[in-house]
Design goal:
By secondary structure, this protein is mainly alpha-helical. About 65% of the residues lie in helices and about 5% in strands. It is built from 6 helices and 2 strands, in the order αααααββα. It has a two-stranded antiparallel ribbon. Strand 1 and strand 2 form a beta hairpin. The radius of gyration is 16 Å and the shape is elongated.
Length: about 150
C-alpha cells in the first residue's frame, strides 16, 4: 500500500474516533436537536459525513457505490445506531482502501452530475476534507446543545 492510501486510512480512522467522541455521553434528544432553522442535527451530520466519506473513497478506488444522499438529511437515530453506522462505514471504507491501486491515482473520475472530473487522488483528499468539515460542525453543534441545555463539556 502506498503512502497516500495509508495517510488517508489513518486520517479517516482518526475522524471516526472524533465522530464517536462527539456523540459520547449525550442524551438521546441531543442527537436530533438542531441549533436553528436550516441547520443539521448531530445525527444528520454524522450520517452525511460518513456517507460522503464512503462515496468519495469509493471514487478514489475507481468504484461507485449506491447512496441516498437525501435520506442522510432526514435521519433520526440512536447513539447505538450512530456508533454502528460509524464502525460499519469505517470497515467498508477500509475495504475500499484495500482495493486502491496507487498507479491509478492520476486517473480522472466523474465528480458531479455536471460533468466535473477529479483525479482519484483528489477524490481521496476530498473524502478527508469533507469529513473533517462535518466533524468540526458536529463539535460546534454539541457545544451549542450543551450551552442551551445548561450542560458543560
Amino acid at each position: 500500500m502506498d503512502a497516500l492510501t495509508e495517510a488517508g486510512r489513518a486520517e479517516l480512522r482518526r475522524q471516526a474516533r472524533s465522530l464517536h467522541e462527539v456523540i459520547e455521553g449525550l442524551p438521546p434528544q441531543a442527537l436530533d436537536w438542531r441549533p436553528g432553522p436550516d441547520t443539521n442535527s448531530l445525527a444528520i451530520l454524522v450520517t452525511h459525513a460518513w456517507g460522503a466519506a464512503e462515496a468519495w473513497t469509493a471514487r478514489a478506488a475507481g468504484q461507485e457505490i449506491p447512496r441516498d444522499r437525501d435520506a442522510e438529511f432526514t435521519i433520526e437515530t440512536t447513539k447505538a445506531g450512530l456508533d454502528r453506522l460509524i464502525d460499519q462505514g469505517l470497515e467498508r471504507i477500509e475495504g475500499i482502501l484495500d482495493a486502491v491501486e496507487p498507479d491509478g491515482y492520476a486517473e480522472a473520475r466523474p465528480a458531479s452530475a455536471a460533468g466535473d472530473r477529479l483525479t482519484r487522488a483528489s477524490c481521496l483528499i476530498r473524502a478527508i476534507q469533507h469529513t473533517q468539515e462535518h466533524v468540526g460542525q458536529a463539535l460546534l453543534t454539541r457545544q451549542l446543545w450543551e450551552q442551551q441545555s445548561g450542560r458543560s463539556a
